[in-house]
From TrEMBL:
<feature type="binding site" description="in other chain">
    <location>
        <position position="99"/>
    </location>
    <ligand>
        <name>5-phospho-alpha-D-ribose 1-diphosphate</name>
    </ligand>
</feature>
<dbReference type="InterPro" id="IPR000836">
    <property type="entry name" value="PRTase_dom"/>
</dbReference>
<dbReference type="GO" id="GO:0006207">
    <property type="term" value="P:'de novo' pyrimidine nucleobase biosynthetic process"/>
</dbReference>
<dbReference type="GO" id="GO:0000287">
    <property type="term" value="F:magnesium ion binding"/>
</dbReference>
<dbReference type="GO" id="GO:0004588">
    <property type="term" value="F:orotate phosphoribosyltransferase activity"/>
</dbReference>
<keyword id="KW-0808">Transferase</keyword>
<keyword id="KW-0460">Magnesium</keyword>
<dbReference type="GO" id="GO:0046132">
    <property type="term" value="P:pyrimidine ribonucleoside biosynthetic process"/>
</dbReference>
<feature type="binding site" description="in other chain">
    <location>
        <begin position="72"/>
        <end position="73"/>
    </location>
    <ligand>
        <name>5-phospho-alpha-D-ribose 1-diphosphate</name>
    </ligand>
</feature>
<comment type="pathway">
    <text>Pyrimidine metabolism; UMP biosynthesis via de novo pathway; UMP from orotate: step 1/2.</text>
</comment>
<feature type="binding site">
    <location>
        <position position="127"/>
    </location>
    <ligand>
        <name>orotate</name>
    </ligand>
</feature>
<comment type="subunit">
    <text>Homodimer.</text>
</comment>
<comment type="function">
    <text>Catalyzes the transfer of a ribosyl phosphate group from 5-phosphoribose 1-diphosphate to orotate, leading to the formation of orotidine monophosphate (OMP).</text>
</comment>
<feature type="binding site">
    <location>
        <position position="155"/>
    </location>
    <ligand>
        <name>orotate</name>
    </ligand>
</feature>
<dbReference type="InterPro" id="IPR004467">
    <property type="entry name" value="Or_phspho_trans_dom"/>
</dbReference>
<keyword id="KW-0665">Pyrimidine biosynthesis</keyword>
<dbReference type="InterPro" id="IPR023031">
    <property type="entry name" value="OPRT"/>
</dbReference>
């Protein structure tokens, strides 16, 4: 594992964005951990988050021409990551959508750069894959081509069948999903921390119950 994935988990835990306790996921599962990206809510933490997204994008070697951030959280992620990429020497345009079409002024649903070429979607998490599906539809409707999906954390758990929602997206659209970090990285982090034995056991149990098949 490259270091930035562990650094990201450490950062998310320190920011209390990645929390341990009792949470209910969108799928109705009782989870001992939760990633709440909305808590990255000041300039320093969003800037740091964007640097991690930029590192993951560059490490993936997936080629793309434009970043697309689905509303609403994706708007901040796409714009901040475009700044981080530019600071790393890659000036990439970005575009995002409005949830409701604007019927005055310039009108329409898309804001920012033209949606064309190879498009990297950027979001916080994939739960059921609805947001990615809608994004792919918008990208194709514009005559562009989805290149991949950047997310912060892959929970590596089953969807309705044996595959995870992330794997379903990869299979359905034939594009890679690139997480900054995954449940495996979280487990490695927990195993390394003093005072986290109980959380480690709970996350391991959760994975045994809901995790995708390994290797
Ligand atoms: O894979 P899915 O089932 O689509 O779930 C994941 C999506 O849900 C959340 O956004 P939401 O649609 O709630 O909008 P928001 O960004 O306005 O919070 C999240 O930011 C993802 O975009
Ligand atoms: O499954 C979810 O709904 C979910 C899990 C998680 O860790 N973070 C999040 O925003 N949603």
């Amino acid at each position: 594992m490259t270091n930035f994935r562990q650094d990201f988990i450490r950062f998310a835990v320190a920011q209390k964005v990645l929390c341990f306790g009792d949470f209910i996921t969108k799928a109705g599962r009782n989870s001992p951990y939760f990633f709440n990206a909305g808590l990255f809510s000041d300039g320093t933490s969003v800037g740091e988050l964007a640097r991690f997204y930029a590192q993951a994008a560059l490490a993936s070697k997936v080629q793309f021409d434009v970043l697309f951030g689905p509303a609403y959280k994706g708007i901040v992620l796409a714009s901040a990551t475009a700044v981080a990429l530019a600071n790393a020497g890659h000036n990439v345009p970005f575009v995002f959508n409005r949830k409701e079409a604007k019927d005055h002024g310039e009108g329409g649903v898309l804001v920012g750069a033209p949606l064309k070429g190879r498009v990297m979607i950027i979001d916080d998490v994939i739960s059921a894959g609805t947001s990615v599906r809608e994004s792919v539809n918008m990208i194709r409707a514009a005559g562009a081509e989805p290149a991949g999906v950047l997310i912060a954390l892959d929970r590596m758990e089953r969807g309705l069948g044996e595959l995870s929602a992330v794997q379903e997206v990869e299979q359905q659209f034939g594009i890679p999903v690139i997480p900054i970090a995954s449940l495996q990285d979280l487990l490695t982090f927990l195993a390394d921390q003093e005072g986290m034995t109980e959380n480690l056991a709970k996350v391991q149990n959760y994975r045994a119950q809901y995790g995708i098949q390994q290797g």
